[in-house]
Specification:
The complex is a heterodimer of chains A (about 500) and B (about 180). Chain A has about 500 residues and is mainly alpha-helical. In chain A, about 75% of the residues lie in helices and about 0% in strands. Chain A has a two-stranded antiparallel sheet. In chain A, strand 1 (about 185) and strand 2 (about 190) form a beta hairpin. In chain B, helix 1 packs antiparallel against helix 2 (about 65-85). Classes of the chains: A mainly alpha (about 500), B mainly alpha (about 180).
């Protein structure tokens, strides 16, 4: 097995004291970020990104991905103990997790949550280990038309399969693609959409936008809520952990089902949020005793947590193999790769073996270390919530500003971040999704380059996107997904018309 | 055994009251945002058309790709205006209540002042002022706790970024006086 050998090499890269220390720091920061209200996975990673600018890429990505795992773990703590989902994907965990805490079974619920998160991630990482090299070596044969077709597929699937109003997804996406084009045109060197401003010459930086959209706007949104909370403090003893683990094999169907759902929704842009709800609902539907769900059933914790983590982790698969992020956080990690001078995409597996396999190995190791860390330190992290939000909010604002400034050393970027904060606040409230915007902003230039290179290659003939079987089927699939709601309705209508005839 | 009976309780004395009157509905905001986006689409579309949105011998001109995107954005915003105008659901939804808006402004206005302060006083001084001021005036936390927290946090940031990681932040007169 080639992948296995390379993975072992990855572990060898990782096992230095410095990397392990960075890993621990990343995990602690991540759990912190996941527990605090008004800070989530994506903005946590975005704010802490500047810390990594002076590191070598491998250490940097290990630390950042550990922040991400930590945030995934941290979200579960507040859902179970306080009935407050720290992250949107832990909403489903509150359904059964909080009732369990009320019954005095908080330790059990937390152990279940952390263990299932671990299992979910592990399944997804194994998928990445074996699938990513295969996909990337296949994608090495891609030319510009194929790449543009894949980008098109990503964008179209967001529009066609997203739950938001279609025109709002289109608005969000086209705005992101437009802003990506501001500044110097990479092909001709011409300036565009700068309106004579020297500040806009640099373009709209992706990370600045993300920090504003997710960091600042999240604080504004959090302030609207009533921030009082009541919850349980819990410590986890070894006895509880072992008793939960002993029962684990009983729930293998649930765990497997949720892992599968999570991996699938993580690779396609369904996301961890959808995965956690789907995992929960399916576990409920297949259960013999449906009424006991929502009253503190341990399966109700297993199912959504496994799915959310499998999805969060597998979102990194398309990012590594194709350079297309499967989630907002993956998009930010991708932005990080570019800052460190790495070009995301299939060539990564060839040119930067150490980096890629170090990252994959860090996913294994990070999850093991993370599991041990959260199991032992829950009480400390739960008590972070005692810190009043009035102290936390200005600190987050300062961290956001530091992050935004550090990327390009530009004061203008702090103002830009503030502007994006307002935009994010308004967009979230009127239902314009932010994920397509993020994705479009990070992929915009690459998508445009791919398009123009294919156009130059074909002499301006759009038929190049159907010129061979591969690119043709990807492009066609993209259009099918784009018009999926229409197709679905037409077929639904036809089958409804057929039914009375048949009856 | 786990000690689950210990409870963590955090109060929120300045929470917005639930029955506060609505400032505006989602529909109004949606229409306004769509109009702004439409204006943006027209501006960017015009700029790209001026740059050149056609074809050259070497392929599409610089403005080609963004020009068509502006058209898509404009079209979607137009549709958004119409859809929002006829949406009964959005008309019934509250965009923000007065009490909520007060709280949002309580954090937004200091943030704007902080960014202004960063421009003229440097980031570290501005963040000390923001954290201590916000904790004391908005959070109603004791003055010594506010000052101490702000000082510790700002100092920690300075050590982490400026000293340890060599990430240089905007600085002002105070740092100049101290010779950093």
């Amino acid at each position: 097995m080639e992948a296995f050998g390379l993975l072992m090499h990855g572990f060898a890269v990782l096992l230095t004291w410095k990397t392990l220390l960075l890993m621990m720091i990343g995990l602690v920061l991540g759990i912190f970020v996941g527990v605090l209200p008004g800070l989530g996975g994506p903005n946590g990673v975005a704010i802490l990104l500047p810390l990594t600018f002076t590191m070598d890429p491998t250490s940097a990505i290990v630390m950042l991905s550990c922040i991400y795992w930590g945030a995934l773990f941290g979200g579960a703590i507040t859902s179970i103990l306080f009935n407050i989902p720290g992250e949107a994907w832990s909403v489903a965990t509150t359904f059964d997790g909080y009732p369990m805490a009320q019954q005095g079974r908080a330790a059990e619920a937390l152990t279940a949550a952390f263990t299932s998160s671990f299992i979910g991630s592990l399944v997804a990482v194994m998928l990445i280990t074996f699938l990513a090299p295969m996909i990337s070596s296949f994608a090495l044969k891609f030319g510009p038309p194929e790449f543009f077709a894949v980008y098109l597929l990503t964008f179209c699937s967001f529009v066609g399969l997203g739950r938001e109003a279609k025109h709002k997804t289109v608005i969000s996406m086209s705005l992101g693609l437009l802003l990506a084009g501001v500044g110097m045109d990479t092909v001709s060197g011409q300036l565009r959409m700068t309106f004579g401003s020297a500040e806009l010459l640099r373009g709209v930086n992706f990370l600045v936008a993300v920090i504003g959209l997710f960091g600042i706007s999240e604080i504004l949104l959090t302030m609207e809520e009533r921030l009082a909370l009541r919850g349980h403090a819990a410590g986890i003893s070894l006895r509880v952990v072992l008793s939960v683990w002993r029962d684990l094999p009983k729930y293998w169907v649930t765990l497997l089902r949720s892992s599968f759902i999570g991996c699938w929704l993580g690779i396609t842009p369904g996301g961890a949020i959808a995965a956690s709800f789907m995992g929960y609902n399916l576990a409920k539907r297949f259960s013999k005793d449906q009424d006991s769900f929502g009253k503190g059933r341990i399966e109700g914790v297993f199912a959504p947590e496994t799915a959310a983590h499998a999805s969060g982790t597998s979102a990194l698969l398309p990012m590594l193999a194709l350079g297309i992020p499967g989630s907002g956080t993956a998009a930010i990690l991708l932005g990080g790769l570019m800052v460190w001078g790495l070009n995301p995409g299939p060539l990564l597996f060839v040119e930067h073996k150490d980096f890629v396999w170090g990252l994959i190995a860090s996913m294994y190791l990070g999850n093991v270390v993370g599991l041990v860390l959260v199991l032992t330190t829950v009480p400390i992290f739960a008590s972070i919530l005692r810190v009043p939000f009035a102290a936390v909010a200005p600190m987050i604002v300062v961290s956001c500003a530091i992050g935004a400034y550090a990327i390009q050393n530009a004061m203008f970027d702090i103002w830009l971040m503030l502007g994006f904060g307002v935009v994010g606040y308004v967009f979230k409230k009127i239902g314009i999704p932010l994920a397509p915007f993020t994705l479009a902003l990070v992929l915009g230039n690459r998508a445009e380059d791919a398009f123009r290179l294919s156009m130059i290659g074909s002499g301006g003939d759009l038929k190049v996107f159907w010129s061979n079987g591969l690119v043709g089927s990807i492009t066609t699939l993209a259009f099918i997904l784009l018009f999926w709601p229409v197709i679905d309705r037409v077929f639904g209508g036809v089958s409804r018309m057929m039914k009375p005839k048949a009856a | 055994m786990s000690n689950t009976d210990i409870e963590i309780v955090v109060e929120d004395p300045t929470a917005p009251e639930a029955n506060s009157p609505a400032v505006t509905s989602n529909r109004v905001v949606d229409v306004v945002v769509s109009l702004l986006l439409l204006a943006l689409a027209v501006t960017l579309g015009y700029d790209n058309w001026r740059t050149g949105a056609g074809w050259e011998s070497t392929g599409p001109q610089a403005g080609y790709f963004p020009f068509y995107l502006s058209i898509i954005l404009g079209g979607a915003s137009l549709y958004g205006i119409v859809a929002a105008f006829f949406s009964r659901k959005e008309a019934a939804e509250t965009f923000v209540m007065r009490a909520q808006l007060r709280r949002v402004l309580a954090v937004f206005v200091p943030t704007v002042l902080f960014v202004l302060g960063t421009q003229f006083l440097g980031l570290y001084v501005a963040s000390f002022l923001l954290i201590s001021g916000f904790m004391f005036f908005v959070g109603k936390i004791a003055w010594w706790k506010s000052l101490l927290t702000a000082f510790v946090f700002t100092a920690a940031m300075f050590i982490v970024f400026d000293v340890a990681f060599d990430v240089i932040m905007p600085k002002g007169p105070l740092e100049a006086a101290l010779g950093r």
